[in-house]
Design goal:
Layout (H helix, E strand, L loop, with lengths): L19 E5 L1 H5 L6 E11 L6 E7 L4 E6 L4 E3 L2 H4 L1 H4 L13 H16 L6
Antiparallel strand pairs: 1-2, 1-5, 2-3, 3-4
Keywords: Plasmid
Length: 123
C-alpha cells in the first residue's frame, strides 16, 4: 500500500509592529539570484485594496532599507528564544569563559554589574 505523502504546512501567523522576521524576496529567489533572504523588523501591516490580502512593510536590518508590500507567505518569525539560546545555555560552571559565546559573556557582565549596583537587602 503506498504511503501518503506529507507536506509541511506553515501555520498562519499575524505579525505585529516590532517583530523580527526572516523574509525572502520571492522574485530574486525563484530567479536564482543571490541576496534573496533578509532579516527585517515589521513596521506596519495593511490590506491590499484589490486582493484583500494582508501585506507588511518592513525595515531590512542589514541596510536599514524600507521594504513595502511583503507577502507573509514569505516571512517567518525569528523568536527571541532562538536569538538568546547561546546565553540561556551558557556553561556557567565552566571556569574558562572562552567556552562561552561572546554574547553570553556580555550578558553576564551586564547582569553582574546591575547586581553590584543594587543596595544590600536587609531582612
Amino acid at each position: 500500500m503506498p504511503q501518503p505523502q506529507t507536506q509541511a504546512v506553515q501555520p498562519k501567523v499575524t505579525y505585529t509592529k516590532g517583530d523580527i522576521v526572516l523574509f525572502r524576496d520571492v522574485e530574486r529567489f525563484w530567479l536564482g539570484l543571490p541576496g534573496h533572504t533578509f532579516v527585517g523588523r515589521v513596521e506596519r501591516s495593511w490590506t491590499h485594496a484589490d486582493t484583500r490580502k494582508v501585506l507588511y512593510d518592513l525595515t531590512e536590518l542589514s541596510g536599514n532599507r524600507a521594504r513595502a508590500g511583503i507577502d507573509p507567505d514569505y516571512m517567518r518569525l525569528l523568536p527571541a528564544t532562538d536569538a538568546m539560546h547561546d546565553i540561556d545555555t551558557a556553561p556557567l560552571s565552566e571556569p574558562d569563559t572562552g567556552a562561552m559565546t561572546p554574547a553570553a559573556v556580555a550578558w553576564l557582565r551586564q547582569h553582574l554589574a546591575q547586581d553590584a549596583a543594587l543596595p544590600a537587602q536587609h531582612i
